[in-house]
């Protein structure tokens, strides 16, 4: 699941912050907001992700050299790097198609596979994370403006 700060909603606050502070300040704030959103989304995923009674039966099923990943996938939710395009910052929560971590098999229910339809695992979580990011963005921008004004 990808999360992004929607700059259009906060354009007035962002422009005001740029005139008071600098573009670097806005970048640092946006990066901090996305990182916080990723952590929040990972915590929500941990709570809502399915867990097996015995995780030693999880993981790749083929081959004689089968290795069991450490812990449940729900306890090891992947958090991607924060990326930037212009003023737009975004980050990923969960497993990407090119993932090769010990819990790589979690990408199959998310993106689908040859014999497995795509499941909407992150859809309910995405709405919660977007609301969290909106609240966080407003609070962070307003706090930075108050601090800059004095």
UniProtKB/TrEMBL annotation:
Residues 44-57 have a biased composition (Basic and acidic residues). This is Phage protein, HK97 gp10 family. Residues 40-79 are annotated as: Disordered. It comes from Eubacterium barkeri (Clostridium barkeri). Residues 58-67 have a biased composition (Polar residues).
């Amino acid at each position: 699941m990808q999360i992004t700060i929607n700059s259009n909603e906060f354009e007035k606050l962002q422009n005001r912050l740029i005139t008071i502070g600098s573009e670097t300040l806005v970048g640092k704030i946006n990066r901090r907001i996305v990182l916080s959103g990723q952590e929040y989304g990972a915590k929500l995923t941990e709570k809502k992700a399915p867990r097996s009674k015995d995780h030693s039966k999880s993981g790749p099923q083929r081959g004689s050299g089968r290795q069991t990943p450490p812990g449940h996938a729900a306890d090891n939710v992947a958090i991607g790097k924060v990326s930037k395009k212009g003023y737009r910052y975004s980050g990923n929560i969960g497993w990407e198609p090119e993932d090769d971590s010990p819990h790589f098999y979690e990408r199959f229910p998310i993106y689908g596979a040859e014999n497995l339809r795509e499941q909407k695992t992150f859809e309910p979580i995405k709405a919660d994370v977007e609301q969290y990011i909106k609240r966080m963005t407003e609070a962070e921008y307003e706090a930075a403006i108050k601090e800059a004004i004095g």
